[in-house]
């Protein structure tokens, strides 16, 4: 295959992607454009610019995508209450389509004929990056060095870096105890000390939340305002999407909310163990379900819950830009038209509990459910016919089975 002329690289500024930057230049003799996304990972990104300049990048893009990330990717996903395998809030998965989108857009602007990423050949991210890229630019070429080179150990990787004048920090010379991926929604830790699922994860793995046992002994209450399924305020203060998630993360951090130890089924076939911290997202999900409980019709709510695992699987597997995800999104968004109001949340020792909810769009009728006098709102005699009609098929089945016996 003809070597690429210009490549846009998803560049973190870390050792692995710095080696990839140099490897692309050495192996292909091509120009490399770097793209670094600020998705709220909490790291200073200017060092990435300096490293890329020092290593001879043709052009350097560093972009703050936090608002776009939360508004256009996280919020639509949370309208669905999406959980992969019933537990995982998809923090890594939902970031990949946005990164791929910008890689493709920058490739067009720069006249590049390829993009590159640092995902390994064992993980899900290679699938997510590439499915998204091909959906947006079917003719794009994707370079995945981890599937091409023979640098299959940490030792060989560092030796190659030293041979080609790639700076290797002292703390990177040994094996990393675990790998970390972070953005505004979550932190994911995998590998090394976490690879035995029978062993409890060391407390130092958790970086975004305090230990629930050490959290405050007094619960904290907050109110989250929703408009059409999306959070728009905290304690009556209107906030932008990224600002709300940032604030919820801080509430969750100090109360030890959002920790998850999960063994999941990767799309590529193997199982892996990960430690996830999603403090703000865990509060958000509980609050969203709270407001839906009074605003969403039973039939709509149950249909959403039936479709949710499929929707979550599509995101996990990398199909954000697929027609089936977009079809499900249209249905989900339609369900949220009346999901507006305020939820009161109790935060305490690792738990986020909905303890109150109110809405002008509420379907809850106290007159119908009260155990006191209901002034004729509900005629209890109607229940007899309802039960008999619903029991008809069961009675016919019983009669047939009795005859057969």
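-> sequence recovered:
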């Amino acid at each position: 295959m003809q070597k690429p002329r210009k490549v846009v690289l998803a560049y973190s500024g870390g050792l692995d992607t710095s080696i990839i930057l140099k490897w692309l230049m050495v192996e292909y003799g091509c120009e490399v454009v770097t793209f670094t996304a600020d998705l709220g990972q909490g790291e200073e990104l200017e060092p990435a610019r300096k490293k890329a300049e020092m290593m001879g990048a043709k052009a350097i893009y560093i972009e703050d995508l936090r608002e776009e990330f939360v508004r256009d990717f996280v919020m639509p996903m949370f309208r669905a209450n999406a959980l992969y395998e019933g537990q995982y809030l998809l923090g890594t998965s939902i970031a990949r389509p946005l990164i791929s989108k910008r890689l493709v857009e920058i490739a067009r602007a720069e006249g590049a004929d390829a993009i590159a990423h640092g995902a390994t050949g064992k993980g899900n991210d290679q699938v997510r990056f590439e499915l998204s890229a091909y959906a947006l630019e079917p003719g794009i070429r994707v370079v995945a060095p981890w599937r091409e080179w023979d640098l299959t150990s940490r030792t060989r990787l560092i030796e190659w870096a030293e041979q080609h004048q790639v700076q290797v920090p002292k703390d990177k010379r040994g094996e990393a105890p675990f790998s970390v991926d972070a953005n505004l929604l979550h932190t994911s830790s995998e590998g090394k000390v976490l690879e035995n699922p029978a062993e409890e994860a060391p407390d130092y793995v958790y970086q975004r939340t305090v230990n629930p046992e050490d959290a405050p002994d007094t619960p904290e209450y907050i109110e989250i305002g929703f408009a059409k399924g999306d959070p728009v305020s905290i304690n009556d203060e209107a906030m932008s999407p990224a600002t709300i998630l940032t604030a919820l993360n801080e509430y969750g951090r100090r109360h030890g909310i959002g920790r998850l130890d999960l063994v999941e089924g990767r799309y590529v076939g193997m199982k892996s163990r990960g430690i996830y911290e999603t403090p703000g997202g865990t509060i958000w999900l509980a609050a969203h379900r709270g407001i839906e409980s009074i605003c969403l019709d039973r039939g709509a709510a149950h249909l959403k819950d039936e479709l949710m695992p499929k929707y979550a699987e599509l995101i996990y597997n990398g199909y954000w830009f697929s027609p089936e995800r977009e079809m499900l999104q249209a249905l989900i968004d339609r369900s949220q038209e009346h999901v507006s109001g305020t939820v009161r949340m109790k935060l305490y020792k690792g738990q986020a509990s909905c303890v109150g909810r109110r809405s002008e769009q509420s379907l809850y009728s106290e007159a119908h459910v009260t155990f006191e006098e209901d002034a004729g709102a509900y005629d209890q005699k109607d229940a007899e016919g309802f039960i008999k009609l619903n029991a008809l098929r069961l009675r016919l089945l019983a009669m047939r089975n009795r005859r057969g016996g």
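Residues 6-175 form a domain with the Rossmann fold fold (CATH 3.40.50.620).
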